[in-house]
Amino acid sequence: FRYAQKNRLLIKPDHKKPSLVLTVTEEALFGKDAKEIKRKVEKLHRQFSHPTGEKLKTLLKTAGFERIEYLKAIDEVSANCEICLRYKRPKPRPVVGLPRGKVFNECVAMDLKHVPETPNVYILHMIDSVTRYSAAKIIYNKKKE
Question: N or C: which end of the chain has fewer CB within 10 A?
Fold first, then answer.
């Protein structure tokens, strides 16, 4: 005698196993319409933690599965997944930017700073954006002249 682990029933060795024939068609295994294929691909996409379409295709091709309907559905599901769209990495920002000007004095950055503890004394600082030439001047009021 031995115990079956699943439901802990005592099974006699001479017990006959039932003869069950299971026929699985290719349509039942792989899906017969686009809706069912999409449902299966969505399940795979969720089970593998939302991989990119290329990673999921590589996984299936490595396993020897290259049905064209599934590969097309993988692209569609990966592109339209709400979770993937919400949490995808942003595109990298460029390290450098385009210059703001091309010739001297075309674009000038200016800053006006108040000198502490002195009434009506300001420093006007100007920097040319092309040549980085810098100039400063002390002024005594903010009125235009």
Answer: C
Query: Is residue 73 within 8 Å of residue 34, measured between CB atoms?
Result: yes
Would you say 126 and 110 are in contact if contact means Cβ atoms under 8 Å apart? Answer: yes
| Pick from 114, 115, 143, 111: nearest CA to 125 | 111
| pTM as predicted | 0.48
Torsion-angle region of 31 (φ positive above 0: left; ψ -120 to 50: alpha; else: beta): left
Helix (H, G, I), strand (E, B) or coil at 35: helix
Q: What is the pLDDT of residues 127-143, one digit of tens each?
A: 999 999 999 999 998 88
Tell me if 85 sits within 8 A of 53, measured CB to CB. no
Both tokens of 129, joined, read 């954006």
Nearest-angstrom CA–CA distance, 61 and 102: 52
